[in-house]
Amino acid sequence: MAGDVAPLLNLAEIDGGGRALVRPGRFAAARSRLLLRPLLQNLASVLLAACRPLSCVRSPRVLRHRLPLRYRRDVAHPLGLPSAVSPRRLPSARRSACRAPCPGSVPHRRLNLAAVSPSDFQLLLSLQGREAHADYTVAAARFLHSLLASVCPPPPPASPFPQGFSLEMIVALLSKDKLNAFGLMEPVSSRDGGEVDGERSVRAYGIYPRASFFNHDCLPNACRFDYVDSASDGNTDIIVRMIHDVPQGREICLSYFPVNLNYANRQRRPMEDYGFTCGCDRCKVEANWSDDENEHGDIGEDNDGNGEGMDEDADEQMSGSEVGKAEEEETDFPHAYFFIRYMCNRKNCGGTMAPLPPSDGAPSDVMECNVCGQLRREDDEVEADGEENMDE
Ligand SMILES: C[S@@+](CC[C@H](N)C(=O)[O-])C[C@H]1O[C@@H](n2cnc3c(N)ncnc32)[C@H](O)[C@@H]1O
């Protein structure tokens, strides 16, 4: 497999799961992380760039925060695309960051993926997505196709698509986008380091081709961090970190949804959003739970949560008290350990904890939440709602 994933992970075919990323050797959580750069930040830019030589994308607006020092060394230039979204202050924290393409801010050559980097464009086309040809995708593609035909001048003869993108190509690109785009979320705010506040909006979307090979598991062994509100170059990069060590040959998975969704939601959402039914070990166990047990809300209460994978929004979480109950009923809930160890205990957060990157080569025993940023030591006793964390 090409790129930065190659030394750490192998691409393999998995029964019923298509391509997947697998660890060739033992994967030590405290040392392993992957930095992934976006191939494109906005599908519309690809479409427009194909027929409008000077088209651009207005960068999403983000709040000015500084990237924590420990991550700065990871930052480098992305693949032919803006390495950062501009750190302009948002007039309102609720304002959506994703804007329609517009003239004037980012040079065309960085956006016209098909022309600038045919191999990256082919990589984009190789991503999964054909299966997502739902009626609404086709309807959206028809609309875009006629819009492009009416607003864009004919592409230059040297363009790889001198006729412009066909309807079929637009359908395919929209489908890739649907199955593979990651949402970069605004940071959470919290009340006095406790309960996490309100909804988070999406700052930007990006497709990270190598991250697109991570399959979903409801008990993931890796999770995704991003720092989109930092002022640094590369603030659209994502970092995938291991949650815990895994043995050789084990598949490395993200959760496409907050890990605290209940069984019913975890069955519904992958089908609705990605076209598959999850049959992971956790789902197999919970499939045998009684309706009563499965009718609980989702862990973490009225959480709006965070998906580590492709998606960014969530609802209905299991109730926090279930974690305590689960400890007592280990046979019925063998994954209780995961929630106690690796789910953020801050109310309404729903994030997943992974060890901080090593500093000076030494592995860290401090875990960081990928949603609220809470830090806690791996061996700390965990109480509900943010007690015993290192912020307090
Ligand atoms: C972002 S892609 C992941 C890589 C994909 N397996 C491939 O071959 O390119 C998402 C797609 O992978 C498949 N997938 C991911 N997790 C899965 C799982 N737990 N079980 C079955 N299929 C899964 C689904 O087809 C889903 O739409």
From TrEMBL:
Record field: compositional bias (Acidic residues):
291-316
- Fetch the InterPro entries from UniProt: ASHR2-like, SET_dom, SET_dom_sf
Domain SET residue range list: 163-257
Q: Where is this region: Disordered?
A: 291-329
Q: What is this protein called?
A: SET domain-containing protein
* The organism of origin for this protein: Corymbia citriodora subsp. variegata
Question: In the record, what lineage is assigned to the organism producing the protein?
Answer: Eukaryota, Viridiplantae, Streptophyta, Embryophyta, Tracheophyta
